[in-house]
Write a sequence for this structure.
């Protein structure tokens, strides 16, 4: 089997081997870039909120969000990817004190509620929005998503997460965080119902808005959805008429064995936390194989790595800026964040004591990455988290940053990046002003937007889920006559 991904030929030789080969005949594909943010002060680079130019403490204002939206659209970004966590980080030092003092993703507000304002001042940027399955009911949530997809003309994506912090489960009134793999089982059932609502309940020509005949919606074109799953039940029609994309673009993050299987079946965009292009390639091959195993094509998914960029007009300017940023960073804040991701309280270990990581109940991919990278002691972790985070950082002038980004794309066999913010919105402004022109000169970045939904913008194959996606299979199922 053979097809094309990112200007490269993808060859699936057997179930466990997908190779992506550079193709001399293919034009270079654009690098997909999202701004990575969260509705909070400290997101990834902890401590940087103390930088005098950083605006993240303004996150409760609409102006903060509309300004970011304008910056990103001016920089021709694909969109903004907004993380979210239900709960807070109380693993490190067995409490929440450092989390509160350093504003480590707390306070944290709802990412979905800032989108209408950003959409109102832009026409093109997409919105990848995180929602935790266990915190929502699929019937009500499906309507929220449809509403926003309508208001934005089809620019909505959903980052499906299964939750990983105990404090969130406690807050939701659960006895504790559900077992790792069963959280994915719940997500499967959630989606099974949501697909029926989004894809099957209303036919495209249901709404006619015929004033003369007094028919807004043709009743015979609207179908009840029946669902009896292990976690959810419903017997009702979807409350909203179809939005441009029907199902939002589906994003996912989490590459444990169960996470991979879930991603292969459902995800159209996958966010990985790889630290090197080689680690990205390993994840990318596994993910594309998982898509093939689910009857999809390797290029039916876009893979994004998290990345930090410090760009300067000259190398010296970039290095100086980096040194200045470092002086505001909190590597201990990075440690506290990572403690919650892995479920390990690093404070219990002395600086050079080996840390035993295990596939626990938090993020298995985080524990895997720590082992892979040899982050085996607190000292090593703190060295890695110098900029307050675990993310790979590129520091340099336009040529250096573009070279390194291309290397990640080509060696890592990925499609793009979620670009973290070090100083908001300076990081993204610098990227737009300094790096984007260089990537454009190389044919690696768009020079203008097309008027399109997020799905069309990403894949160029239409607004709706492709027919080989599991969600498309229920399009007609719910319209069958009653037995
Ligand atoms: C790069 C990356 C980003 C993630 N972002 C979020 C997030 O914003 N909110 C959240 O609740 N979980 C987030 N997760 C957690 C996963 O979505 C998933 O629920 C959890 O990690 C289990 O994944 P696993 O399959 O790696 O164990 C993220 C995971 C990774 C690897």
């Amino acid at each position: 089997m053979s097809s094309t991904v990112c200007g490269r030929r993808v060859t699936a030789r057997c179930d466990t081997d997908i190779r992506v080969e550079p193709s001399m005949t293919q034009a270079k594909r654009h690098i997909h870039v999202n701004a990575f943010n969260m509705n909070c002060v400290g997101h990834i680079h902890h401590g940087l909120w103390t930088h005098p130019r950083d605006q993240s403490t303004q996150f409760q204002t609409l102006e903060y969000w509309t300004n970011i939206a304008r910056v990103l659209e001016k920089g021709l970004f694909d969109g903004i990817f907004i993380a979210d966590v239900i709960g807070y980080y109380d693993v490190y030092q067995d409490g929440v004190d450092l989390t509160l003092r350093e504003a480590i993703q707390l306070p944290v507000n709802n990412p979905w509620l800032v989108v209408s304002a950003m959409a109102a001042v832009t026409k093109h940027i997409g919105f990848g929005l995180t929602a935790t399955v266990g915190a929502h009911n699929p019937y009500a949530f499906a309507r929220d998503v449809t509403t926003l997809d309508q208001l934005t003309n089809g620019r909505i994506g959903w980052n499906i997460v299964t939750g990983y912090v105990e404090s969130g489960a406690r807050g939701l009134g659960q006895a504790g965080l559900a077992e790792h793999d069963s959280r994915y089982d719940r997500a499967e059932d959630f989606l099974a119902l949501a697909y029926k609502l989004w894809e099957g309940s209303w036919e495209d020509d249901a709404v006619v808005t015929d004033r003369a005949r007094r028919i807004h919606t043709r009743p015979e074109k609207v179908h009840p959805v029946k669902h009896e799953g292990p976690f959810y039940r419903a017997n009702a029609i979807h409350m909203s008429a179809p939005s441009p994309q029907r199902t939002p673009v589906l994003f996912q993050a989490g590459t444990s064995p169960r996470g991979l299987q879930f991603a292969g079946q459902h995800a159209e965009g996958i966010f990985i936390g790889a630290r090197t292009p080689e680690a990205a390639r390993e994840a990318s091959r596994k993910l594309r194989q998982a898509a093939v195993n689910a009857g999809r094509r390797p290029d039916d998914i876009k893979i994004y790595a998290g990345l930090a960029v410090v760009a300067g007009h000259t190398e010296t300017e970039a290095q100086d800026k980096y040194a200045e940023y470092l002086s505001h960073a909190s590597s201990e804040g990075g440690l506290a964040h990572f403690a919650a991701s892995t479920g390990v309280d690093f404070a219990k270990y002395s600086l050079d004591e080996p840390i035993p990581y295990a596939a626990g109940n938090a993020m298995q991919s985080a524990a895997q990455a720590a082992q892979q990278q040899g982050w085996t002691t607190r000292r090593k972790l703190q060295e890695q988290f110098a900029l307050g985070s675990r993310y790979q950082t590129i520091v340099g002038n336009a040529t250096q940053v573009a070279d390194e980004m291309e290397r990640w794309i080509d060696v890592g066999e990925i499609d793009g990046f979620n670009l973290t913010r070090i100083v908001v919105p300076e990081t993204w402004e610098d990227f737009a002003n300094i790096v984007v022109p260089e990537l454009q000169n190389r044919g690696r970045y768009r020079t203008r937007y097309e008027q399109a939904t997020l799905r069309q913008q990403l894949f160029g194959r239409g607004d709706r889920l492709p027919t080989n996606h599991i969600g498309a299979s229920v399009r007609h199922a719910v319209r069958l006559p009653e037995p």
Q: What stands out?
A: Residues 2-479 form a domain with the TIM Barrel fold (CATH 3.20.20.30).
